[in-house]
From TrEMBL, chain A:
Protein name as catalogued: SNX4 protein
PX domain residues: 1-106
Keyword field contains Protein transport: yes
Keywords assigned: Coiled coil, Protein transport, Transport
SUPFAM superfamilies to which the protein is assigned, alphabetical: PX domain
Organism: Syrrhaptes paradoxus
Automatic annotation (TrEMBL), chain B:
PX domain residues: 34-155
Species annotation: Syrrhaptes paradoxus (Pallas's sandgrouse)
Upper classification of the organism: Eukaryota, Metazoa, Chordata, Craniata, Vertebrata
Keyword GTP-binding: no
One cellular-component annotation, GO: phagophore assembly site
Annotated protein name in UniProt: SNX7 protein
Length: 368, 367
């Protein structure tokens, strides 16, 4: 896989014309949709954002901006890495041919007919399904994914504002440089000190650009988990739907069995329009009744088989989903810890730079 | 005759050698050599039927013989400071009288009696009196002494003495009329240099003042955002188990950054901002002093010109001209000496203010 990854990242890295970049991104989207539908119990790695979000003012919100394009390229590469290192997903043939096959890949994916499997109900993000016996673990997990989404997006928004303000503080110091230089022209004794201090102020003001660019990596790491939260939620939703379908099927089976019993024994335990009409307009013939019973019995048998397989499906889903969720949790904890550590390291380095500049400036000032 | 007093306490031929400049500098810095200590504090609000105003307590401690007591405590209001300043300007037209804080600050929309405004003003008034006390000539001014020592009723009765407003205005009008040309024609080169310097200096210092205020504002905005940023990590930690401690750690670090930023801001507002503002005001004052010198010169020049046309009354004129020539010479010397002194102070103030800023930034990054 490693060697193929290198080939792919090379072709990604090429300065492709605008059109082909967009096709590429849409192919990534297609791949991810395919994986989500084919492996509903897996927390599928997310794609990087489509549009630049959570930008602080200097950073361009333009999708064509070279910095954005570069960061997206890194994000896409990261996506592929994640899929490749997933114990289940890395075996997928479509994924394999995404990496290997230049032409005709799209057709191949569409031929799998995965779109038919996709449950359109999942698209209605906020629709609720009344599940009578929800799995507590999944409910908690869904709740967690909502919280994670909300807190990370809040964090990213405020971080962007903090970055904006920090940028302002640093850049205004650059004005000192210019004025000090002009002032030094009329001073005899203070001139040298002012001039060199001004130079350090310029260095200070310029340093913020690199500092904030590095911080974007941290923001990107958080963003990945913002989108991962969505993927997690999707798994919970799929389970919810499964459970709902199961309950509906069980309910349907029960009511059919009841109908059958009523027809067989002639007792009407529940009110039904049919019952009323038959009372009013006369009973059905025995043949009619027996035909009905036979149909129902067939349906009941079908239903019981379906229910059995649905139950099995459900249990398998829960088992494999939960295995992947545990894997995901560990990955998440590890990655986020690393991200926080590297963030702290960035801050320390920023402070070290600050100390250096202001030590130099102090020396110049004291010689004024 | 005030010009005589200037000649006595300030020799025009005093050499401006590096070592003597150092001595001057040290005199202001060495508290042991000082014999007059002044503090301005304890602002109090007074409400009368007509107005509301603030008085400040002025405490003076001195070992000087000409003071009857060694300690004085009086209360003064802003008007009294204005009076003192105008008396000093009158008595010493070509000396650099320190600036007073402004009456109102429009741009900040600070209320007249907000705590911040009162405190800023108090500090500036304290500075004002101490600068006068440190000045080799002004420190012995009689009105200054009265300001420091007189009780409220004594001061108001003293204020009423002296030339009436009308007669003072008359003097000013005559002085302006006789020097309409401003004395620029025969201005010694030295003062033209000073003028040029002051024009550039006042431009630069005003820009610096704006920059420093802008930095303060940006820091405050940064602080506000940071205050919102930290708690989000704490909130997040509530949903997590494994990484909860790391998240809480980040939150507490951000909190520390906030405190460090507050310190840095306090450093700016206590040190750099008041100094820059003071020198913005000083620029205006110095331009005024240079103008007054020009006016005095102008008086002389117009009399000399008049003499050129009236050869018969030479004797009468020559005495007057002699007096004016002395006046000009004294004014020039006083200004020259005070200018050198002011420049030294300015350099020292700027050096310490900016060094202080650098140190505050170092502390900030170290924390």
């Amino acid at each position: 896989v490693l060697s193929f990854r290198a080939v792919e990242s090379q072709s990604e890295g090429q300065c492709a014309p605008v059109d082909s970049l967009w096709r590429r991104y849409s192919e990534f989207e297609l791949l991810r949709n395919y994986l989500s539908v084919t492996y509903p119990h897996i927390v599928v790695p997310p794609l990087p954002e489509k549009r630049a979000d959570f930008v602080w003012h200097k950073l361009s919100a333009d999708n064509m901006d070279p910095d954005f394009v570069e960061r997206r390229r890194i994000g896409l590469e990261n996506f592929l890495l994640r899929v490749a290192s997933h114990p289940v997903l890395c075996e997928d043939k479509i994924f394999y041919s995404f990496l290997m096959q230049e032409g005709g890949w799209k057709e191949m994916v569409n031929e799998t007919g995965f779109q038919l499997k996709a449950d359109s109900r999942l698209k209605a993000l906020n629709a609720t399904f009344r599940v009578k016996n929800p799995d507590k673990r999944f409910t908690e997990l869904k709740h967690y994914s909502d919280e994670l989404q909300s807190v990370i997006s809040h964090l990213l928004r405020v971080r962007a504002r903090v970055a904006d303000r920090l940028y302002g503080v640093y850049k205004v110091h650059g004005n000192y440089g210019r004025v000090f230089s002009e002032w030094s022209a009329i001073e005899k004794e203070m001139g040298d000190g002012l001039q060199s201090a001004g130079h350090h102020m310029d260095v200070y003001a310029a340093s913020i650009d690199d500092i904030l660019e590095e911080e974007e990596h941290y923001a990107d790491q958080l963003k990945e988990y913002l989108f991962y939260a969505e993927a997690l939620r999707a798994v919970c939703r799929k389970h919810e739907l499964m459970q709902y379908d199961l309950e509906m099927a069980a309910q349907d089976l029960t009511s059919k069995k009841q109908q059958c019993e009523e027809l067989a024994t002639g007792t009407v335990r529940t009110f039904s329009l049919k019952g009323m009409t038959s009372k009013l307009f006369g009973q059905e013939t025995t043949e009619q009744r027996e035909a009905k019973i036979k149909v129902l019995e067939e349906q009941i048998q079908e239903g019981e088989e379906q229910l059995k397989s649905k139950n099995l499906e459900g249990r398998d889903f829960v088992k494999s989903a939960w295995a992947d969720i545990e894997r995901f949790k560990e990955q998440k904890n590890h990655d986020l810890k690393e991200a926080l550590i590297s963030y702290a390291v960035m801050q320390i380095s920023m402070c070290k730079k600050g100390i250096q500049v202001w030590t130099n400036a102090k020396e110049c000032f004291s010689k004024m | 005759d005030t010009s005589l007093a200037e000649v006595n306490s300030f020799s025009p031929s005093m050499p401006i050698s590096p070592s003597s400049m150092i001595n001057q500098y040290k005199f202001e810095d060495e508290p042991e050599l000082r014999d007059l200590f002044i503090t301005v504090d304890d602002p109090e609000s007074h409400i009368t039927a007509i107005e509301t105003f603030i008085t400040y307590r002025v405490v003076t401690k001195t070992s000087r013989g000409e003071f009857d007591s060694s300690e004085y405590e009086v209360r003064r209001r802003y008007q009294d400071f204005l009076w003192l300043k105008s008396k000093l300007e009158e008595a010493h037209p070509t000396l650099i009288i320190p600036p007073l804080p402004e009456k109102f600050i429009m741009k900040g929309m600070v209320e007249r009696f907000s705590d911040e405004f009162i405190e800023t003003r108090r500090k500036a008034l304290h500075k004002f009196l101490n600068r006068i006390a440190d000045h080799p000539t002004l420190t012995f001014n009689e009105d200054f002494k009265i300001f420091l020592t007189a009780q409220a009723w004594e001061l108001s009765s003293h204020k009423k003495q002296g030339p009436s407003l009308l007669s003072r205005m008359g003097q000013t009008v005559r002085a302006v009329a006789s020097s309409v040309r401003g004395g620029v024609k025969n201005r010694p080169e030295m003062f033209t240099e000073m003028n040029d310097y002051m024009e550039t200096f006042s431009q630069k210092i005003s820009v610096l003042d704006k920059i420093a205020h802008r930095i303060y504002k940006e820091e405050r905005e940064y602080l506000n955002e940071m205050k919102e940023y930290g708690p989000i990590y704490t909130l997040w930690s509530a949903s997590e188990e494994d990484i909860a401690d790391s998240l809480k750690g980040v939150a507490s670090c951000i909190d520390k950054c906030c405190k460090a930023t507050e310190k840095r801001m306090a450093g700016l507002s206590e040190n750099l901002l008041p100094i820059l503002h003071e020198y913005v005001l000083y620029s205006e004052i110095l331009m005024g002093v240079l103008k007054r010198r020009d006016q005095i010169q102008g008086e002389l020049d117009s009399k000399v010109d008049a003499l050129a046309n009236k050869k018969t009354e030479k004797d009468l004129f020559s005495e007057e001209i002699g007096k004016l020539e002395d006046k000009v010479e004294c004014a020039n010397n006083a200004l020259k000496a005070d200018w050198d002194r002011w420049k030294q102070n300015m350099q020292c103030d700027m050096r310490s203010a900016f060094t202080n800023v650098a140190e505050n930034n170092l502390h900030y990054y170290e924390e």
